[in-house]
Design goal:
InterPro entries: aa-tRNA-synth_II/BPL/LPL (IPR045864), B3/B4_tRNA-bd (IPR005146), DNA-bd_dom_put_sf (IPR009061), Fdx_antiC-bd (IPR005121), Fdx_antiC-bd_sf (IPR036690), NA-bd_OB-fold (IPR012340), Phe-tRNA-ligase_IIc_bsu (IPR045060), Phe-tRNA-ligase_IIc_bsu_bact (IPR004532). It catalyses: tRNA(Phe) + L-phenylalanine + ATP = L-phenylalanyl-tRNA(Phe) + AMP + diphosphate + H(+). Its cofactor is Mg(2+). By secondary structure, the protein is of the alpha+beta class. The protein is built from 22 helices and 42 strands. Strand 3 and strand 4 form a beta hairpin. Helix 5 crosses helix 6.
Amino acid sequence: MRVPLSWLREYVDLPATETGRDVQAKLISAGLEVETVEQLGADIKGPLVVGQVLTIEELEGFKKPIRFCTVDVGQANGTGEPQEIVCGARNFTVGDKVVVVLPGGVLPGGFEISARKTYGKVSHGMICSSDELGMGDDGSQGIIVLPPETEVGADAIELLELVDEVLDIAVTANRGDCLSIRGVARETAIAYGLPLRDPALLDVPAANDFGYPVRVDDPLGCDRFTARTVSGLDPEARSPIWLQRRLQKAGMRPISLAVDVTNYVMLELGQPLHAYDRARVQGTIGVRRAKEGEEITTLDGVKRTLHAEDLVITDERGPIGLAGVMGGAHTEIDDTEGTTTDVVIEAAHFDPVSVARTARRHKLTSEAARRFERGVDPQAAAAAAQRTVDLLVLLAGGTADAGVTEVVTPSAPRTITVPADHPDKVAGVVYGRETVVRRLQEIGCDVSGQDELTVTVPSWRPDLADPNDLAEEVIRLEGYENLPSTLPRLPSGRGLTRRQRLHRRVGRALAGAGYVETPTYPFLAEKVFDQFGLDADDPARRVVRLVNPLSDEEPALRTMLLPGLLGALRRNDGRGSHDLALFETGLVFHPREEQRTAARLPVDRRPTDEELAGLAAALPEQPRHVAVVLAGAREQTGWWGKGRPADWADAVEAARIVAREAGAGLTVRKGAYGPWHPGRCAELTVVVDGTEQVVGHAGELHPRVLKTLGLPARTCAMELNLDLLERVGNDLPQAPGISTFPVATQDVALVVDKAVPAADVEAALREGAGELLESIRLFDLYENAEQLGEGRKSLAYALRFRAPDRTLTVDEASAARDAAVALAAERTGAVLRS
């Protein structure tokens, strides 16, 4: 919201010495975010005057049209003689009043004006456009043409109000009242302790039966509709300079008198209005929900198909406007034809949620919708309509019709009961009842009661809904900077939770293994499940959908980390980084079977364990996962030798790294799931309460998935449920056993069917070898049908035996090896390779 300081001073008698910077500091202290203070016209220097064009000579022989003009500037040039000026603009004629800067003047940007020879003539000054004066877009092309009644020789700096300060305020979603000069003036008056001249305090005639007919069929969507009519307007009337300049300073472009007046009143009072050409409205104006498939062409010239939830303004033909968003083209006041003499003024109050949803559904933003969706004062509608009528009568010579239409759905004022010391408890500062009551009254509340206050909220503050909102008002007006800085007293001996410790260890371990942590957004598009090839009944497809997603393309919370992580890999690969190893640890979200509504937690005390448990039960299940993705080279080629590309084994090894940090026993076996290549996918399992349970997958992604997602060839990935690993693991550091006795190494090669997993063979060897086995490692896989037989493979293991209290004999090591081989043969059908 752009607020000219000159406009603000109309409603608050600020000290003459107060600058925009001073007001900015006061408003920031009161909680408003004043981003900048723009100094308009600070570098403009006169003489800048009004001149009248006396003659125009067209200069020939140049590439573009050039005119040599004589301009009467009165006594501003010291001689009274006509000023000779060369100008290339063509939107003015002899007799027009224009703005002239004379030699010695300075325009915005430090552009000094002097007499100079150009196009064979000497130009003593310049005829100015709005851009050259820093006025912004006035809707015209070329030179500023002033009204005929403007006095020749008058100071144009004062006439055009070129020198001013404009406060640019970033209004938060809860402070819709500050999207108006009225609201900012109220905050300024409170900050300075000065009285406010409320522009909404107008004498408004009572409703009668002579007004324009209006019918409201949806009182929940529109609880107030005021209609006024003005007749006999001069169709040639134009907005005066002061009105145009205020609109320009506030960031709006002047269009036509009727539209400019409605925009002016909207900026002044915060109430959006709409003016209809009465001759184009047929019959009763109505308010209802749209019929599915109805169409309307809005003022921006776009034909829109309406949704059944859209609230629309209608006449006998159908929709003539999107309520609270934008009017229709069929009832527009057409300034180009100059035929509109009678207008109907609409000032209504619409449901904020309905307006917001309509604006987003049609991707249509407007100043009206911006205000309605943040909350508009419903009591200001009649005053805004009256203010609009008064300005149209004053500026266009019209007549206000006696009829006043007002359709109102009765509603009681909102009251809040709050303990007088509640702000004290929230802030940790003793304000006292007197201060609390005074501050609440300053913002417009009616307050009664002693220890228990009954507060009636003003109509312009729909954001005040509970005691905490009132406490915030007291605290911000007393000054956030006056709150003491108090460090909380933390209970000793808690530290990090087991889950937090595991999260940190896993991150450090993966980073140490060469992976780069890449946090991604927790949102996804459900089409990714089809791209991953997940079954229709896969649990990952059950998502939590957001009511207000940041992007319509990603409306759901993620149930797996890979979509976001693969997207990061694709973007980096597209930017030239082809050798990638990325990882992420983060939450995934699964909906609960039973949907609950979360209770609002208190802010003046710590929530109880029961309240926190109730809040947690209303949230989706949020297990923590860890995932990695790899592409390109895992080891680089260099002078030291040949490198190698990343493959499925690296993804499996990443899973083993995570499992080691969790202290969990991870079993790796052949699997097939979703986006992974069925022949290069490892299923990762752990034993939970005596039952083997899948905890994740790792391997190379399917070529079809790579092509669909635009990923590099042979991309590999892994994802694990980190919470499940934590549950079965042991986070106590395990110190390695150190023995002074030598190790005994035995190698064994076993031939098994190709279908037998190496993990099963290893498990049998480990169990059969007994307690003397220190470690086991698979170091060779050999397949040869001629030597081993069809469908057979050879697995070679290195077994290390050691006793803690003695040196093992050859017989003891051999006996342990034989026992291991025997159990492997019994369980997997393995035979020693000869």
